[in-house]
């Protein structure tokens, strides 16, 4: 497309992308620094266990989420039963629940001192822990269950959409050819949903790798907790960076595998989707099973933990309802709002360049900027601190050169570091949602705009922006909730003395007194619900 | 455009917020702020010097190191000795000369080169179930003995309190014997190390284990909490190794940072923290043993009885800290 796109736009795009990719490069450089044999010691002793735990956890969570999500998605998309309309969006709610909160609540219930085991002991008159077997909640398996319970909605959401979009004539054809409903599910629907499932599984795997608080609370050492321990326990940033690189390799391998697995798949189907009338109406026992399945899932993954959280909050309301609580809430809101606004602004620029530039090369900036999503918060923190510290010193050196008193640590001593890290991590979300919205704007509009001698700025401001508002809003909301929930990066990068809701809640979880932080936890969950409801509504309209 | 403008303002405001404005003292503290707030308020009243305390459980040394000569920190307060050693090792602290402090703190509880000073003593005790074991005359060495198989609970071995204990075992027995002890200890555990010191006492109350290691002041804290009182009531507090070298003692402490912007005032505050008034407050608020010999422990703490402390100087433990970390990894204590 020929457009008066000045070089400055493209150049700005590359510069922004370079800044956003800086943490990753800094990390790799840091990993080559000497580490006083800390890494080789870890390598000889505990590293294999860390890697094993990380991989097994990812595997278990992916399998667990698939097993939970696929039946739910199938029931909602292709069957009809009482409550289907409500379960459709209710099953998304667990996404708003931070995994470590669910973990805490279930530990309280199922631990040796918890109500379940106490009741069992009373009923059967067992005296001690050696009289019976009860699975440990705080274990690798326990962590896998907790994470599956809150992460399955990613797969559910994508699989549900995939099942809904499958053309009904194709399914009719398979039935005509003699496939029963099971067979047509296995041989047609499931394989056709594979791309969607792969994306979902990759997302779940990344989230699992990034989880810090759950495994930390369950005392299951993984690579994520190892990075934290190595940095702050051994005090070796270089060894921590080496561990981080291993972790990134694992994650990029997963993403690469996901891309590779569907490299040759091409799907051709008319986007008709299925009508209400095509839904299989369930009766009798089948209906009961379907309703029960969805209800139990919702109960375990959301209702029960949330009700217990509310119970804690009521019991300890007097201690939690304080000026501090408002301070932390404001901190969370402020950071999240700032990050959302920045992500939207930057993504708009990057995607715009990509849209109007005639060169294929110019897709690079937005691609590069999106890699941050794969970097776990703990790892990202290292990558952010290193370059920003250099910058801080550079700034102060300049002041010193002119014999002025420097401003001190303007970047690493303030929320700047935190905001920057959040932007690096979450900008992929806004880039994705804006790109999606762009697909619905016909290029002829751009051409018309050129014919009318509009500048690129005008094209973006007056033509694109009004048409993109939905995508922008959805992206901003998702970034907002992710910023509210993100823990490890906040923990490591916050200015000293700064607390937001997530770090506040985590402090109580690690002190085994979530009761006192329950109110803050509820705010995180409730704020997280808003984008989910919005997201679901926009998806429904599409269907 | 309005939106862009407000973003810019927000951004600038956040930068300004990060810059240290006044000549106040800044304390980076590994200890929770509420423990020291009353003491610092009194200090401000007496001297007119304002103090900002920022609390972080982790990573203060790393932060000061990174901040270098730009760091706003004047004083670091720690909850155990290994953090003090870490600060010294990274060359982040400055020695001070103060007759007041030297008078208030016995030489056993300060660095020979005056780079750090202890403020309170914290004994690593062994709790035992009242119901199943009763009061014990026990040694740390017994944690590895076969009679307690499957009956011992502890928090993570990598926690500074436990690392210090392991370091003291290395100091007394050498690395080889300490490693044997540590594997035996691990084999005796009723469950994988988890939770904090209080959670171990809770586990004793619930019958999951009979013995737990934990600092003594937790007993005072649990007795003060209505929900946890029953946990505390279910255990005896034992001072280990009374028949021989004495119980392992860790310390909380303080150090002056190398690039402290306000050294004179910082030394004043450090002197104040060792004074009888401040030491008394430490003893009363958190049930710890003051290092200043003129100050007595609180009446509750005194009721737990006299004890003999390990005479090994604190700075000696430092030499074995890294070795202790490695031993814990080698026997896979937490895994």
Automatic annotation (TrEMBL), chain A:
It comes from Shewanella intestini. Residues 51-255, 329-535 form the ABC transmembrane type-1 domain. Belongs to the binding-protein-dependent transport system permease family. It is a multi-pass membrane protein. It holds the Pfam family BPD_transp_1. InterPro entries: MetI-like, MetI-like_sf. Keywords: Cell membrane, Membrane, Transmembrane, Transmembrane helix, Transport. This is Iron ABC transporter permease. Its main location: membrane. The chain crosses the membrane at residues 12-31, 51-77, 89-107, 140-159, 196-219, 231-257, 287-314, 334-353, 373-391, 411-438, 459-481, 516-535. PANTHER family: IRON UTILIZATION PROTEIN (PTHR30183:SF2), MOLYBDENUM TRANSPORT SYSTEM PERMEASE PROTEIN MODB (PTHR30183). It is found in: Cell membrane.
UniProtKB/TrEMBL annotation, chain B:
CDD domains: PBP2_FutA1_ilke (cd13542). Gene3D superfamilies: Periplasmic binding protein-like II. Residues 1-21 form the signal peptide. Keywords: Signal. The keyword Iron does not apply. Belongs to the bacterial solute-binding protein 1 family. PANTHER family: IRON-UTILIZATION PERIPLASMIC PROTEIN, THIAMINE-BINDING PERIPLASMIC PROTEIN-RELATED. This is Fe(3+) ABC transporter substrate-binding protein. It comes from Shewanella intestini. The lineage of its organism: Bacteria, Pseudomonadati, Pseudomonadota, Gammaproteobacteria, Alteromonadales.
């Amino acid at each position: 497309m020929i457009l008066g796109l000045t070089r400055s736009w493209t150049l700005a795009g590359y510069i922004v992308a370079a800044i956003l990719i800086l943490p990753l490069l800094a990390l790799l450089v840091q990993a080559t620094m000497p580490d006083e044999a800390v890494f080789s010691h870890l390598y000889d002793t505990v590293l294999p266990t860390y890697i094993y735990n990380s991989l097994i956890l990812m595997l278990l969570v992916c399998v667990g989420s698939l097993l939970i999500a696929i039946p739910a998605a199938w029931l909602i998309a292709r069957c009809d039963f009482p409550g289907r309309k409500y379960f459709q969006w209710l099953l998304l709610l667990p996404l708003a629940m931070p995994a470590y909160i669910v973990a805490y609540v279930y530990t309280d219930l199922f631990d040796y001192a918890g109500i379940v085991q106490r009741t069992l002991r009373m009923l059967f008159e067992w005296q001690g822990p050696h009289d019976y077997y009860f699975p440990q909640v705080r274990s690798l398996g326990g962590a896998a269950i907790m994470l599956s319970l809150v992460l399955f909605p990613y797969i559910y959401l994508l699989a549900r959409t995939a099942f809904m979009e499958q053309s009904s004539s194709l399914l009719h054809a398979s039935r005509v050819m003699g496939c029963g409903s099971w067979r047509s599910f296995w041989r047609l629907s499931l394989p056709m949903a594979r791309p969607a499932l792969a994306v979902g599984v990759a997302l779940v795997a990344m989230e699992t790798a990034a989880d810090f608080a759950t495994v930390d609370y369950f005392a299951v050492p993984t690579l994520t907790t190892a990075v934290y321990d190595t940095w702050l326990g051994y005090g070796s940033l270089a060894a921590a960076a080496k561990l981080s690189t291993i972790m990134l390799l694992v994650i990029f391998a997963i993403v690469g595998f996901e891309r590779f697995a569907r490299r040759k798949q091409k799907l051709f189907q008319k986007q008709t989707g299925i009508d209400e009338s095509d839904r299989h109406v369930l009766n009798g026992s089948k209906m009961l099973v379907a309703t029960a399945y969805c209800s139990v899932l919702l109960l375990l993954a959301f209702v029960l933990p949330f009700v217990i959280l509310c119970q804690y909050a009521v019991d300890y309301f007097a201690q939690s309802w304080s000026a501090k609580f408002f301070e932390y809430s404001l901190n969370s809101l402020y950071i999240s709002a700032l990050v959302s606004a920045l992500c939207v602004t930057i993504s708009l620029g990057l995607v715009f360049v990509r849209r109007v530039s005639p060169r294929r090369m110019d897709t690079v900036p937005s691609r590069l900027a999106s890699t941050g999503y794969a970097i776990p918060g703990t790892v990202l923190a290292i990558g952010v601190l290193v370059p920003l510290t250099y910058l801080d010193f550079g700034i102060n050196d300049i002041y010193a050169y002119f014999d002025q008193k420097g401003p001190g640590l303007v970047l690493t001593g303030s929320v700047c570091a935190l905001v920057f890290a959040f932007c690096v991590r979450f900008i992929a979300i806004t880039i994705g949602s804006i790109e999606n919205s762009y697909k619905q704007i016909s290029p002829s509009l751009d051409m018309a705009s050129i014919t009318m001698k509009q500048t690129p700025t005008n094209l973006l401001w007056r033509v694109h922006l009004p048409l993109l508002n939905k995508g922008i809003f959805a992206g901003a909301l998702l970034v907002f909730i992710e910023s509210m929930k993100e823990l490890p990066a906040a923990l490591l990068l916050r200015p000293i003395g700064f607390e937001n809701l997530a770090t506040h809640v985590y402090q109580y979880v690690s002190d085994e007194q979530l009761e006192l932080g329950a109110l803050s936890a509820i705010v995180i969950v409730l704020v997280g619900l808003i984008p989910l409801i919005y997201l679901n509504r926009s998806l429904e309209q599409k269907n | 455009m309005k939106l862009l403008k407000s973003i810019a303002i927000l951004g600038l405001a956040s930068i300004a917020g990060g810059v240290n404005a006044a000549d106040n003292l800044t304390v980076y503290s590994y200890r929770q702020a509420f423990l020291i707030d009353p003491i610092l308020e009194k200090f401000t009243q007496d001297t007119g010097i304002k103090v900002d305390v920022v609390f972080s459980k982790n990573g203060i040394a790393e932060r000061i190191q990174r901040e270098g000569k730009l760091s706003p920190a004047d004083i670091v307060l720690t909850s155990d000795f290994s953090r003090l050693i870490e600060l010294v090792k990274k060359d982040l602290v400055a020695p001070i000369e103060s007759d007041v402090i030297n008078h208030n703190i016995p030489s056993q509880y300060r660095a020979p080169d005056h780079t750090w000073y202890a403020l309170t003593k914290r004994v690593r005790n062994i709790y035992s179930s009242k119901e199943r074991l009763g009061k014990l005359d026990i040694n740390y060495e017994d944690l590895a003995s076969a009679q307690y198989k499957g009956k011992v609970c502890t928090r993570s071995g990598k926690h500074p309190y436990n690392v210090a204990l392991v370091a003291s075992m290395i100091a007394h027995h050498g690395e080889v014997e300490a490693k044997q002890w540590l594997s035996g200890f691990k084999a005796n555990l009723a469950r994988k190390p988890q939770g904090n010191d209080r959670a171990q006492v809770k586990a004793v109350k619930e019958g999951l284990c009979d013995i737990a290691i934990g600092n003594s002041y937790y007993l005072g804290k649990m007795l003060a909490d209505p929900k946890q009182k029953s946990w505390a009531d279910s255990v005896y507090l034992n001072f280990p190794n009374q028949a021989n070298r004495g119980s392992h003692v860790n310390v909380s402490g303080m150090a002056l940072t190398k690039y402290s912007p306000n050294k004179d005032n910082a030394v004043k505050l450090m002197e104040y923290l060792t004074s009888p008034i401040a030491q008394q407050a430490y003893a009363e608020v958190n049930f710890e043993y003051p290092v200043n010999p003129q100050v007595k422990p609180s009446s509750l703490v005194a009721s737990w009885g006299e004890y003999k402390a390990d005479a090994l100087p604190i700075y000696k433990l430092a030499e074995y800290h890294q070795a202790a970390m490695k031993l814990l990894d080698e026997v896979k204590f937490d895994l």
